[in-house]
Design a protein that fits this description.
The structure is a single chain. The protein is of the alpha/beta class. The chain contains twelve helices and twelve strands. It has helices spanning about 25-35, 40-50, 70, 85-90, 110-115, 130-140, 160-165, 170, 185-190, 205-210, 230-235, 255-265; strands at about 5, 35-40, 55-60, 80, 100-105, 120-125, 145-150, 175, 195-200, 205, 215-220, 240. A seven-stranded parallel beta sheet has the order 8-7-6-11-9-12-10. Strands 1-4-3-5-2 form a five-stranded mixed beta sheet. Helix 6 (about 130-140) packs parallel to helix 12. It is elongated. The N and C termini lie far apart (about 45 Å).
C-alpha cells in the first residue's frame, strides 16, 4: 500500500520529479537522467500502473485519493498529497485532473521483438511535436495497428503531453526507436513488410489502392514541416496519398495518420 505523505512546502525536495513541468528542455534532461516519465490524470495513471510500469511516486490532490485507492494498494511508492493550489505552484500549471505519477522507464526493445507477430506498423520519421506523436499512437491503437517504430529524432512518446493526448496508448502498443535511420525502410521490406510512404510524390497512388490486398504493411509518415526525407520517400516500396479536393494538398500528420490507419485496417 502506498504511504500517504502530506506536503505543505512547494520546495520539498521529494517533489523533484514533478517540478516545472512546462519547461520542455528541462523535463527532457531530467527524465532522461533519472529514467522516469510522468503520467497525468487518473485514467492515464491507472493505465500506466495496470500496464506494469513501476511507480516511483504519486502526487495527488485529496479529492482524487478515493478514485485511485485501488491503484495505491498495488505499490509501496509514496503518494504525496497536497492542495491543488500547491500542486500548481510545484508543476507550473493547474493540474485540473488532480493526479500525477512518476514511473520508471523500461529499456527500449529490439526492433525484431517489436515486429514479432505484427501485421500493421506505423513508422515515424522526425515527427517532433509531442501532441502529434501522442495522437498518432492513439489512432494506431484504436484502429488495430500492432506496433510503432520511431526514427531517432522523433519526439518522446513517454513525454507527459504525448501520453496525455494518446490516452496512454503508448503503454499497450509495442514501440521502439530505429537504430539505423538510413536503411530502416529496406530492413522492413526484408522483414516482409510492404512499406507505404504517405507523400505528395508524383507517382503516389490513392491510399485505398496502395494498400489493397497487402498482408504486412508499414505506413511511413514524415515530419510536420517537410514531410518525408527524399531518402525515405524513395526507399519505400509504395508511395501513397490521401485524395483531397482541389486547393488543399495535405492534412496535419496526426489527422492524415488516422485516415490512413482507417483505410489500411480495412484492406
Amino acid at each position: 500500500m502506498a504511504t500517504l505523505v502530506e506536503i505543505s512546502d512547494p520546495a520539498d525536495p521529494r517533489l523533484a520529479d514533478y517540478r516545472d513541468l512546462r519547461d520542455v528542455e528541462l523535463r527532457k534532461a531530467l527524465e532522461a537522467e533519472h529514467g522516469l516519465f510522468l503520467a497525468e490524470g487518473a485514467k492515464v495513471v491507472r493505465r500506466a500502473v495496470e500496464a506494469g510500469f513501476s511507480p516511483r511516486s504519486f502526487l495527488m490532490a485529496p479529492r482524487w485519493l478515493d478514485g485511485l485507492a485501488d491503484v495505491l494498494t498495488t505499490t509501496d511508492a509514496p503518494c504525496y498529497v497536497l492542495s491543488e493550489t500547491l500542486a500548481e505552484e510545484v508543476t507550473g500549471f493547474h493540474v485540473h485532473r488532480g493526479a500525477l505519477a512518476s514511473l520508471e522507464r523500461r529499456p527500449l526493445a529490439p526492433v525484431a521483438d517489436v515486429l514479432s507477430g505484427a501485421r500493421s506498423v506505423l513508422v515515424l520519421e522526425d515527427i517532433v511535436d509531442h501532441t502529434n506523436v501522442g495522437a498518432i499512437f492513439r489512432s494506431g491503437a484504436a484502429l488495430g495497428f500492432d506496433a510503432v517504430l520511431l526514427a531517432p529524432r522523433c519526439a518522446d512518446p513517454l513525454y507527459r503531453r504525448s501520453i496525455k493526448v494518446g490516452m496512454g496508448a503508448v503503454f499497450t502498443t509495442p514501440w521502439t526507436r530505429l537504430p539505423d535511420w538510413a536503411d530502416a525502410l529496406p530492413s522492413l521490406s526484408a522483414a516482409g513488410f510492404t512499406t507505404v510512404a504517405l507523400t505528395l510524390a508524383p507517382d503516389s497512388r490513392p491510399i485505398e489502392e496502395a494498400v489493397a490486398g497487402l498482408d504486412r504493411v508499414a505506413l511511413v509518415l514524415g515530419s510536420e514541416g517537410h514531410g518525408l526525407s527524399p531518402r525515405w520517400e524513395q526507399a519505400a516500396d509504395v508511395r501513397a496519398t490521401i485524395p483531397m479536393r482541389a486547393g488543399i494538398d495535405s492534412l496535419n500528420v496526426a489527422a492524415a495518420t488516422a485516415v490512413a490507419c482507417y483505410v489500411t485496417a480495412r484492406r
